[in-house]
Amino acid sequence: MSPRRGNGDGRVGSAAHRGRRSHCHLQDDSGTALVEFALIVPLFALMLFVMIQFGIGFAGWDQLRNGVQLVARQAAMGGLVCPAGETVEECMAMKIGEPVGTSGLPTVAFYYGHPSPGNPSYEVVVCASANVEDITGLPITYSSRSAFYVESQAQPPPSFGTCSP
User: Fold this and answer.
1) Strand pairing of 122-131 and 107-112?
2) Calpha distance 110→145 (Å, rounded)
3) What crossing angle do the helices spanning 32-77 and 88-96 adopt, rounded to 10°?
4) Higher-confidence residue: 165 or 31?
5) Which pLDDT value is given to residue 165?
6) Cβ pair 96, 68 in contact under 8 A
7) Are 72 and 125 in contact (CB under 8 A)?
8) Is residue 72 a contact partner of residue 150, using CB atoms and an 8 Å limit?
9) Which site from 83, 121, 126, 156 is most exposed, i.e. has the minimal number of CB atoms within 10 Å?
10) pTM of the full predicted structure?
């Protein structure tokens, strides 16, 4: 018969021996928080920059849209006054202004819609587009179109066309 190991209470080994053995199996996780932080921070930074870029982009598009609507309304109501030597498109681009996040004044085109038969009414249509400068480097273009209906005009508009800036 082999000698009995243990101290008689059913446990094997001394308390000091058990403590060493269980201590050897513990893992050292002192750097875990740093590793998790290093993995998560770039994702949060990316989400933050995407939200900021989206906000800038939305503000620029909204500014372009509002400017085009204002210029189209002024042109329809006869209140668009352009300085001498400036084309109507240049004048409209100056009045629209440079939207947030874009690389300069927008490209503007305008035309007068065809009057209906027997009715001298027509619509004034203004289109504008602006190239975006963003941190991604992707080619993005904002565009907007606005039309205003002009009723009972004494004389027909000077020209007809299509909006393709």
Assistant:
1) antiparallel
2) 9
3) 140
4) 31
5) 43
6) yes
7) yes
8) no
9) 83
10) 0.67
